Amino acid sequence: MAAKKLRRAMLSQELCERLSRHQITTCQDFLRLSFLELMKVTGQSYYDVRKLLCKVSRACAPKMQTAYEMKLRKSVNPSSAFLSTTLHSLDEVLHGGVPCGSLTEITGPPGCGKTQFCIMASVLATLPVSMGGLDGAVIYIDTESAFSAERLIEIAGNRFPTYFDSEEKLFCMTCSIHLYRELTCGSVLKRITSLEEEIISKKVKLIIVDSIASVVRKEFDTKLQGNLIERSNFLARGASVLKYLAEEFSIPVILTNQITTSLSNGLAIQADLVSPADDLSLSEGASGSGKRKSGCVTAALGNTWSHSVNTRLILQYHDLLTRQLLVAKSPVAPFSAFFYTIEKSGLVLQVCQKLLCTPLLQRSDGKDQTNLTWEGTNPALQTIRVRNTTLKDTFLDAALPSTTGETPSNTSCL
Amino acid sequence: MQRDVGSLPLAPAVRARLVSAGFQSVQELLETGPCGLSKEIGISKEEALEVLQVVRQECHGDATRTTARSGASRKCTALELLEEEQAQGFIITFCSALDNILGGGVQLTKITEVCGAPGVGKTQLCMQLAVDVQIPECFGGVAGEAVFIDTEGSFIVDRVVDIAAACVQHCHLIAEAHQEEDQLKALETFSVESILSHIYCFRCRDYIELLAQVYLLPDFLSEHSKVRLVVVDGIAFPFRHEFEDLSLRTRLLNGLAQQLIIVANDHKSAVILTNQMTTRIGQSQSTLVPALGESWGHAATVRLIFHWDNSQRLATLYKSPSQKESTVPYHITVSIPFGLEIASCKGIFRHTDKSVNYVFLVLLFSSLMNITGNTGMSPDLLIFCTFSL
């Protein structure tokens, strides 16, 4: 919209020519100037310039719609508002599943299951609508070369054995997953910006970028001056392009992120608790090496990126076998935690183990709940448990009841 | 009449000609007339006529400004202002602690900025206010409509539907408790559909669309004169990338702020902006500060910062011309300082049906308000818990 040529904004021919002599050809150039500059450039009086401004604004301003119209449009097509993850409790909490039209981020330590989640999601997107899928193609942008086609077939075969009963169906499914290997930031950005036509021609219903953090962290070393700004610029631009695609075509976008060690005391926002020696609170520690000094592990890519994504799911280790999925940021869901394991058929949610479950967690209808609500915190600073800490913590873990937030002491605190 | 010709808002070329022809004051121009003017400075008669019309408009404006003692649009005494302010309504947020520190709620004719870390509840507050502004006057609301300008894509209609349904139920309960004529009448037109159809949404994808939309706002608001709230959700997002020239960004932001102040004043509406937090890296520490720089801090009249303290959400009033700085906690779970009673009520709030949950909460709150009579005990929750029940 902003790059619209002034000619198409219904300005007169001679005015357009006059403006182009001053290198003003698009709406963007026009609206950036102040009143005085516009008067000088167009040679018209203040009131006329005001009218011109309104005309040009009308050409590139967005259309108005009331919330009611938006709701009606959604209710006409209810099944296409979410991609169901077939993880029942998660879908319930998220009001249907991974939302369409916004960015969802999956972050966690290495080996926790992020790529598995993405592969599972790509299978789900190709399923027909009657089975909860989106009946469309998938674009998978792989920056770590972690995608395995064999695993894809294994998940599909084991999760939906009745549907994928023939070679042909599997073949069909794999045909609709388009894989792109991009290894640099520039190529990722180029690929994302050129996706529009492909989405239309191939009837794409899901975009996955696995992982956005690896390319960014390879190329931008935040210790060098100026790199931090460039990195934020790249991320913001990528986020806005992806948001545009997600909204325009009403499809979900899944991104994966990594973790970093933040050397400040993580939980405190005022970093005056950081000792002067730790002056690199934003630096990338070695990812996944666990706790270091007083540091803690949080999602990578910083605070600005946490603003850009709409939903954040954190995967972390819990004990030797089970892992935990946290809903850390969501516009429709409260903080929740689920246990899962990774099996042949992908991710499988676990019912809460008796060993770790206190009676307070049981719902009044007597069922053990897998949906544990817990007192969450700032999604950008939420600490994540990595593999070697879980061994230590499993048996000393008095922390678990307090993270599930239903102890009586909470009720008396304000 | 003695106004200098060079100060008139004419086209620069015409102005240059007038000055070089020797015209100095407006009086001379008016005496010359259009035909004489066109001959003297070499422009067509139509152009000369336009010049004189502009001149007359300006002079008329000047005259009314100098002769009128009061009643002109921008000038009044402090007493008149006081009466206006006292009669003005607030847009309540349904969280009494937050309303208290704001002095009653979100004020009309002022710009309020809400800054906060990601996921802390800024968009939820905006959606809440877009519903609350529509509460009829007999329930203590402002009975206005809302404009929602969304730059981040975080406006979720389903959430607004939930909030609107809860608000309507709340009003129904109040009306049933009091059984007043005008309240029951107002409820007939106050429904979820009507609330949704009075929220006007614009989705701006970059800063140019945002600028364009704000330029068009005055016209839109004159057509929809009942609008009392303008929300810009995410003023930081479009301005934080693509700007190599920071001075251009500052200029555009200042222009935007001025436009919004004019909109707020002329149309008696409240303007809410949400901002992000950014990390400022100091010598030996780094702190989270509101984004967009120091000069943007001047744009808003009232500034609220939402932040986390471990797992507790806090709201801090950071800047206000009339209230003092204070911090209040707000919860997502039920937490009222009556201890025991809540332990037994917990079972009720675990009901799976969300609307039933909310009804119980509201009953509790309204009965508590009656008991406490707004004296000091401030149950600081309320609509923040409907967000995530």
Automatic annotation (TrEMBL), chain B:
Which spans are transmembrane here? Answer: none
RecA family profile domain sequence ranges:
87-277
Signal peptide (UniProt feature, chain positions): none
Annotated PROSITE patterns: RECA_2
Look up keyword Ion transport and say if it applies.
no
Would I find DNA damage among this entry's keywords? yes
Q: Which GO terms describe its molecular function?
A: ATP binding; ATP-dependent DNA damage sensor activity; crossover junction DNA endonuclease activity; four-way junction DNA binding
In Gene Ontology terms, what is a biological process of this protein?
reciprocal meiotic recombination
Q: Which GO terms describe its cellular component?
A: mitochondrion; perinuclear region of cytoplasm; Rad51B-Rad51C-Rad51D-XRCC2 complex; Rad51C-XRCC3 complex; replication fork
Where is this protein found?
Cytoplasm, Perinuclear region; Mitochondrion; Nucleus
In this entry, which stretches build a coiled coil?
none
Keywords tagged on the record: ATP-binding, Cytoplasm, DNA damage, DNA recombination, DNA repair, DNA-binding, Mitochondrion, Nucleotide-binding, Nucleus, Phosphoprotein
Pfam families assigned: Rad51
The entry sums up its family as follows:
Belongs to the RecA family. RAD51 subfamily.
Protein name listed in UniProt: DNA repair protein RAD51 homolog 3
The organism encoding this protein is Melopsittacus undulatus
